[in-house]
Amino acid sequence: MDAEIVARLRGVIPRLARQLNDTSTGEDLTPTQYSVLALVRVRGPVGLAELTGLEGLNPTMLSRVVKVLDERGLVRRLPDPKDMRAVRLEVTEEGLRLNDRVRAQRTQVLSECLGRLPPETAEALLAAVPAMEALAEAVKSTAPARPR
To answer: Which of 56, 42, 44 is nearest to 103 (CA)?
Structure first.
């Protein structure tokens, strides 16, 4: 495998993520806050310990993010029926609406960018989506556990 092209791929992924994160201005959420909101929507109700692992945040940082989302009415805390000391999160109706707006905004920006590329380049990128999803799962399964 060509190490240089692999290094370029490694470099372009976070750059693309940062640029896409910048497209969701106007909702007054940090990229981490939006990411946690989106995870709660997809996985919810979800426990804080699970979120810590999924998001790769330390518990203190996650607690701060959840506090902001909760205060804004985007998520709600629920008791965990299996452990009354633990909390689970679910997205609220307002959280669903905000998530939908950000997702639509990001999708629109990406669609417009793809539309400005040569058609064969856009088609190649879209055809690579399943491979990129597989890569994300492979990276996730080989990543070392983060300290807590």
So the answer is: 42
